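Q: Predict the assembly, please.
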Amino acid sequence: MGVLRTFAIKLLRLVAVVIVVTFLSFWLTKLAPGDPVSKIKPFAAPAERAQITQELGLNDSFLSQYTTWLGDFVTGDFGKLYDSGLAVRKVVDERLPVSLELMIYAQLLSLIIAIPLGVYTAYKQGSRFDGISNTLMFALLALPTFVLALLLQIYVGAKWDLLPTQSTVTGGFPLNPIDNWQLMLMPTIALAAGQIAVYMRLLRSDMIATLQEDFITTAKAKGIKPNRVLFYHALRPSSLTLLTVAGLNVGALIGGAIVVETIFGVPGMGDALYRAILAQQYPAELSFVAIIAIIYVLFNFFVDILYSVLDPRIRHARALA
Amino acid sequence: MRCRRLTFSALAAALAVSLAACGGSGGGSGSSTAAGQGAPKSGGSVTYALDGKTTNFCIPSAQLAISGIMVATAVYDTLMVPTRDPLKYAPYLAKDVHPNATYDQWTITLRPGVRFQDGTPVNSAAVKQNIDAWRKGTVLQLMYANIADVTAPDDATVVVSMKSPWVSFPAWLWNIGRVGIAAPAQLDAGEACATKMIGSGPFKVTHFDPSTGDVATEKNPDYWRTGYPYLDQLNFKISEGTDNRLNGLQGGQFDIMLDSSGASFETVKSLPGLTYQLSPPGRRELGMVLLNVTRPPLDDITVRRAIAQGTDREALNAIANKGSFTLTEQVVDRDIMGYLRDPGFPKYDPKAAKKAVNAWKQAHDGRSPTFSLQSPADEMNKALAQEVKRQMAEIGVTVNLPAPVDQATIINQAIGNQVDAFLWRNYAGGDPDTLYPWFKSGSLVNFNKIDDPMVDAALVAGRAEPDAAKRTRIYEGLNRRLSTQAYNLYTWYVNWYIAEQSDVKGILGPNLPDAAGKPGPEKPVEVLAGYHQLLGIWVDR
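A: Predicted assembly structure:
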């Protein structure tokens, strides 16, 4: 019962966050100066202008416009890109999987590298390896995503010809696993690099603290092998901060994805949002932002649930509550 | 495509080295002609990297920039095409185009047996439907407003009657590649006209994604120019940003790219394995800061001239083109009718500019002249806008830089009279009558919003004047007026170039067709504002 209640509360919070984000975004689009119809469809004939005005409810009150938009949005009507006539839903259907794929790859790559590195550098705190790793991670952290993306594209793609600099598929993204993987590798590295550094540094400091705990000393005294102590006993309680940041970092990944997708020509949501902004297609921008907000909130929702899986104390505390 | 090797160790090494210092590039190879390329081979596929997406290919309502024009060149044929003589246009889809004695009626004779890609004939009814649609088109209507009537007396003849004599009408049957003849099935398709591309051109569309702008095409096996095109597939990939296209070309993802940045051309010249075609001097496009002369303070000639005097265009040229482009002070290149040795454009003189600005401030309650400069979203243009802002600040003019937007949005803003000034390039070299819509008062695409009786009079007179010497004088007068009024802050002649893998040949294409449709003596135009033929491209692989 307690678990269900917790779940329901979290779900309600999720809905509230989405409403707040979409409301603020909607409000923001209304602050833009000028006639919205002239921006999204500059050469519309009077009849078409009237139709767009009606479609977007521009003569209605602000609140009515918002609730109408929200009602359409939750029923899957995400509006239209008026410059191309495409339904935003179609664009989302095609592009969201590509962006999610990129974000999942980036998240996985950063965790796969950061976790063993964080654990090992904590274990070997103060060693030469620890020092070198820390310096390298600081360098990665300081390197903006777009710089790394361009460096990869220029050297790995253009000069050394190891990986394709961008997709040559006209429309869509290759589903063939090898082509897909080759095209995704550089964007993934560019997006993951900064996260690796963050995750590794966080995990390292939490692990150092955990390794001072009594239960670790006990485990060592019992003769348990160091690897088991590190990866079984110490890693689990040390990974809560990492998990929190991994959830929060989805926002950074989305931001980075806009840059990375644009540079590597990855037809994802970030690229679609960028193009919509440049073309002043604000109804589409709004839907893209709302979808991105939902993804962000959902990621953190699942991270929140994972807490109780990883840390029995949280589970028990929630059960008692 | 080049062989690609991928191992984790190689990747790790690559990543490690990429974080180290940048290395130099190797020696270069290049070509500025298409001659001596061996016997063409049929077959193969080519990916052409373009600089911006086009979402609407419904010719009467489309706003085609060079990327859209290149796609349109693949899919559609125009009635006329340019030649190497800026004043001469040659029949293409038309077999013949000729005027009556007073130039107020033109007769277009069509080639027999030509069909659209949907199998319907390219006949007089179809061509009339196209021309009538241009006359109603959002942007095109002003360009064709001088047409009084279009008739189709027989299946192969179209007669276009004018309201007033129109000497250079053939130039408008090409219109920088913007008026390809579309099949009636496309024109009649309503909203789908934007995406349902059916022309009579060498390539048929197999896939068009308006979201990305990518277009895939395949050979039109029934193309009326026997033996063409050579390629089985020609795909257009939108890759915004010069560096992206250049990296894709170098990495082998793209076979051809176009660009107009002098800085990138210097890079192309230094890269091995690439060849290039450069637009020759004489009829190049212009770069400029386009000024909306209805918006204060740009409505004041004193301010416009001070801006021109205060702009160090060499510094701008260094940023955008490594200083390699030739500066211009006028609206035409040297081979175009109306070119002047000194058109009277204000010379660089920051002291005089500062003085003029100070005088203006005193007359306006101490306010600084202030305007907004809109730029496209690419890095080079943003850097240029920043530099203009800096230079203007030195003479006392305040420049605001709004958030960059895409090129199509800038056009929309300009038409809607929503911008003060923006970075732009235009006026590809051809018949000077092609300047008409850009400067005629009331024209939708008169982005400067110029309403100058002297300019209007010259445009109208030049259009109707058949005598070459008199036309020259008229356009010289127009040119001088535009420069002395500083309606635009001219920057440089733009060196468009096409860069391609060295195994991609035939970029400029075969000689233009004679009356029988076979390559005749007339050579195709060289790269003109990015445009070139596509049907002669072949790959030596």
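The two ends of chain B are 9 Å apart (CA to CA). Chain B touches chain A through 57 residues (CB under 8 Å).
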